[in-house]
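Narrative of activities, Objective 1.

The group set out to show that a structural description can be obtained from nothing but a protein's sequence at a throughput compatible with the screening campaign. Below is one input-output pair from the validation batch, recorded exactly as produced.
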Amino acid sequence: MTRRLWGRLFAVAAALSFPAVAFAYIGPGAGFALAGSFMVLLTTLAIVALTLLTYPFTLLWRAIRIGNPYKDAAVKRVIVVGMDGMDPGLASRFMAEGRLPNFKRLADKGAFRALQTSNPSMSPVAWSTFATGTDASHHGIYDFITRDPCTCAPLISSTDIGKVERVLNIGRYVIPLGKPEIKLLQKGEAFWKALGERHVPAIVQRVPITFPPNAFRGLLLSGMCVPDLRGSQGTFAFFTTEEKEGRPAYTGGEQTLLRRKGNVIRSRIVGPDNSLLKAGGRMTLPFTLTVGKAGVTVAIEGSEPFELVPRRYSPWIKLTFKPGLGISVNGIARFYLNEMDPNVNLYMTPIHIDPENPAMPISHPDVYAIYLAKKQGPYATLGLAEDTWALNERVIDEAAFLDFAYLVGEEREKMLLDAIEKTRSGLVCTVFDTTDRIQHMFYRYLDPSHPANAGKDITAHKDEVAKVYESMDRMIGRLWHEVEREDTAFLVISDHGFTNFRRGVNLNSWLFQEGYLALRDGHVLSGDWFEHVDWSRTRAFALGLTGLFINRKGREQSGIVEEGAEYDALVAELRERLVALRDPEREGPVIRRVVSAMAEMDGPERFDAPDLLVGYEGGYRHSWECATGAVTATVFQDNTKSWSGDHCVDPDIVPGVLFSNRPLATERPRLIDMPTSILRLLGQKPPAHMVGGMIFPTSEQPAVARGWLDPATLDQSGAAPGALAVP
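Output recorded for this entry:
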C-alpha cells in the first residue's frame, strides 16, 4: 500500500485508548481516540455544498412543516453567559462595595437572585441539569467518576470509549479496521436540541459534559471532560535540574530530571500511547533547551524554535507526534520557565488536542473547532484547562496559575463575541471556568486561619477572588449593548456557589473503623482505588466527592447486602450515624444532610447511583484520599492544599447566581428551571422529560422579583449562608 493509502486508512479508523488518572478533579481519563481531520474537512465541505444547493427547498419545507418558530416568542434571542462557581453572597458583597458596577446595573435593570443548584452540587451534575432540565436520577451524572460494578475500579461518569473489535496485523503494526465508539453517558436530550428541531439557531460553547458532542441543528464546542492528548483529564509535565536523592525534587504530573552540559540540556516530551505498534509505548518528542543570559531557547523536533523568558508563558506551541506509517498526531501546549538559575525549572501544560487538527471529536460539526482556530488562533481545548493540580503540587505558583487562567478566559470571550455576532436570533450559551478555578485555589486568602495558608504567601493575592469577579464585570460592561436590546434576554448564571474547605473527611476510614468496610488480613490501611479492600466482608464504601455506595447483591459483582429489608436497614443506619458524626477537633455538625437516592429520587438512573449522597456542612468535604477510595489512619485531617474552597457540600449552602435583564416571576429560581424557561422565552414547548417551571413573567405569572438579591438570604458578612463557614 502507498503511504497515502495507509494514511487515509488510519485517519478514518485508528484509535488509541487507555485509562489514566486525572489530577484536577480526582478522576480517570476519558481515554483517547484518534481521528484525522482531513477527511472530516472534505466531508464537511461536501455537506456545505449540498446544503447550499438544497437550501431553497429546505426553506419551503420548513415553512410548510413548522411555520414561523418565533410566533409565540417573548424574545428573538437568548444570551446565556455561564460563570462557573459564581457565588451569590460574594457577588452581593462586592456589589455593595462598588466593585461590580455592571452587575449592579444588570440587577437594577432586571433581577439578581440566588439560583438553587443540583444535588450533588458539583459542575458535571449541575450543568447536566442545566442542559437536560432533569435531576441526576434522570440524566445519570452524579459525580466526575463512578465505579465499575464488576471491579469497583474508577470510571469517568460522563464518557465511554469503546475498543476497535477488528484489527489488521502487519509486521510490527496493528491497524484498526474501524474506529471506537465514543459515547456521552449523560441521559436525556439537551434543550438546544429541541431548539434545533424547531429550526431555532443555537451556538453552545464549552458547557461541561458535552464531550463527545452530540449532533443537533446548531454549533457546539465541548467543555469539561474533554481529555488531553494523553487521554487523561490533565497531565502536566515538569522538567527540572533540581534533584533529591537522584530523582526530581517535585511530584505530580510527568516529572523529568534534566542533565545540563554547559548551556545545553536535551530531553524529551512524553505524548500519548502508540497503539499502532504491537509493542506499544509512549510517543515522544526530543527537544533541546539552550540557556542564554536572559532566557532559554527551546527547539522541539518538528516545531520552530522559540524563546522563553522567566515567568512568562509561551504562545501555544504545536507538538506533532508520529506513530508511524506517515501518520501525525497533533497537540498544543504552553511552556513556562519558572526559573533558570541556579536550577532550570520548566513547566509544560497538559498537551491539549489541537483544535485546528483535532485528533478527537471536540465540536459539532467537526469543522466548528477548526473554524474557531482559524478565526482566533489556537485555544485551550482540555476540559479542565486551568492546571489546579500543578498549583496544588507547587510545581507552579499562584502568579503562574493566574496568568494562564486569564489567558483561557480571554480565549473564551473571543468565542462568545464571535457567537453573538453571528446570532441575531436564537440561543448563544458560553460557559467561563475562570471564576470556579480561581475560587478553588484562592479561597484560603478569604480565611486567614485556613490550614492551607501554612508555609504559603497570605497577602500577595488576598484580593484575587474579588479581582476575578471584577474581570467578569468588565466583560459584562463590554457586552452592555446586548443587555439593553429589547429583543434579547441576557442571563448570567452559575451552576453553584462556593464555601470554605478546611477539613477533609475520609468516610472510607470511618467505615473501616465502624466495621462497614473490611480490609484483607494484615492490612489496616489501603491505597487508592480500594487496593486492599476485602469485598466479601465489605458492606459500604465511598468514592468520588459526595457519594457512598452500598455493596449490593445483584449490582456489584461481589455484593453482599441483600435487597429489601437488609438494604433499607443499612441505609437508614448509615444516614442516622453520618448526620451524628462529629469532628473531635471542632464543634458542631460535620454533615448537614444525607440523601438516599433510592428513597428520595424518582428517576430511572437511581439504581446505579451512589446510594447515599453526603451533604457536608460548610468547611468540610470528602478528603482527597476518600475521593480516590483509600483508607487512611484518621477520619479527619486538615486540608493543606492550595485547593482551599469547594462546593461539594449540602446544596443549600452553595446556590448559584442568576442575573437577568428581565424581571422574574419567582423569588426562588432553580437551575432545573432554566431549560424550560429559555425554551418558552423563544416560543418553544419544552419536551416532556423536562420537569422545571417557567421563571419569567407571562400573562398568568406576573413579575414578582426585580433588582437585587433579597438581603434576608444573606448573613451579616454579606456572604450566602455557609459561604465562609469556619467550624
